[in-house]
Every structure is written in C-alpha cells, then in structure tokens.
Amino acid sequence: MKRILILFLIVNCYLVNIVKGQGIIEPKHSFTLELGLPNSFTNKAFREIMQGLVHVSPYYQYAFKNGFALGIGGRYSYFAINEFRVPSKVFGGNHSVGGFVKIGHEKFYSELFAIDAGVKLGYAQNIFYSDLLRSRGIDLISKSSIYIEPIIGFVLASSESDTYRLSLGYSFFNNSFKPWDIGYEDGNEIGYTAKELAPISSFLTVGFGYTHHFNGKISEGFEE
Predict the structure, then answer these.
(1) DSSP helix/strand/coil, 180
(2) What is the pLDDT of residue 219?
(3) Cα–Cα distance between 190 and 86 in angstroms, integer?
C-alpha cells in the first residue's frame, strides 16, 4: 500500500511539468481500465484462507456537464487458496467474473487533478475450485452474487485525452465464503465457528487505472 502511494506521488510530480498550461479537461466519453490488488475483509475464513492476487475492471463512462456520470463495464478478480493457512496443502482458488453499472461524479479541479467517485452495482459469478474438491468428485462450485462497490479515483492528467489514477474500491457481496466452497466438510474442521463464517464476503481493492477521453474538451490553455 505504501509503495503504491509513493509511486503515485512520483508520477504526480512528473506529470505536473508535462500538463502545465494545457487547460482543464471537460470529460465526456471515456474508457477506463483499472488493475489492482484485492485484500479480503469481514468474513474471517475468507480473509485468512483466500489471498487476493488480481482485480481487473474495464468500463465505459459518460459524464454530463454538471459532472454526473454513468458507466457500464466488467470485472474479474482472482483469489488463491493460501496453503499455509489450512491444515494440509490445498491448491485452488476463486475466479470471480461479472458486470456492473456505475453511478458517480467526475470533475477536474485543475489542469492536472480530478476526482472520479461513485458506486458500482453489479452481478458476479464466483467459481471455486481445488484439488480437495476434485478428490471428492466435484470439479468446481459456482455461486452467483449481487454486489455493491463504492469507489473513488484520484486522477492525474498526462495530456488532453489521457489520464492515470490511483483507485480505491470496497466490494460487498450478498453471500458468504464457506470452507466447503473449497472442499472442507465444515468450518470446525479447520477451526472456524458459525459466527465467524456468517459475515458477508468483502474486499478492498487498491490499484492503478488508465483512462482515455475520446472527445473530452479543454476549457482553456491547450493549443493544438
């Protein structure tokens, strides 16, 4: 987390010199690709057993003149089983694939800096697999879920059409991770009580993003 913030500050200092004097971007049509590291929370078993490796989210967004923005996109995340947090080595993971709509607000406060904040509302298919499941004759377990993800992006402009961002998102799913999703008979088998397994699955994603503005306008200062 600290290294990501330091890298973002270094990029910030570099971009100040690049975009100085170009004018403020007025976003309209844009495409964003976010890449981050998911960190599980809330559900104790999910937090300790499943290790987040990657989260990818591409989406299209349209921003109105008042900053109100609507978007639509997809998401993919992958969590691997942490073999050191289970009684015996178990190899496998959780693929999560889905789509969402986004409601938010995007505004440039200077020629360099903008904030893009909002909420993603979507559907995800969570696919669990492990060698323990296969030993029981089960190829995979699939669980569908509705989720909500408040998200904020701290945006830096590199040109009149390209921006980079530090993004923070927190996803809440309407179901819970259970040890039997990866092949265990019950929670007690690996030391979790029913109370510890009851909370919904959730995770915080910290990452970077790139946005291309297809026909955003420059309010002042930029010369062709």
Answers:
(1) helix
(2) 53
(3) 7
Please determine, for residue 188, whether its predicted confidence score (pLDDT) is greater than 90.
no
Whether residue 187 is predicted with pLDDT greater than 70 in this model: the reply is no
Token pair for residue 161? 């059409």
CA distances from 49 to 9, 52, 82, 180, 188 (A): 33, 10, 5, 12, 14
**DSSP H stretches of helix in the chain:** 2-19, 44-49, 131-135, 194-197
C-alpha to C-alpha distance for 28 and 217, rounded to whole angstroms: 8
Helix (H) / strand (E) element for 70: namely: strand 68-81
pLDDT in tens, 47-106: 999 999 999 999 999 999 899 999 999 999 999 999 888 888 889 999 999 999 999 999
Above 70 in pLDDT, residue 15? no
Burial 102-117 (b: 16+ CB within 10 A, else e): bebebbbeebbbbbbb
Q: Give the integer Cα–Cα distance in Å for 62 and 60.
A: 7
With a cut of 80, say whether residue 218 has pLDDT above it.
no
Is the separation of the CB atoms in 58 and 33 below 8 Å?
yes
Domains of the chain: 2-17+35-216 (2.40.160.20)
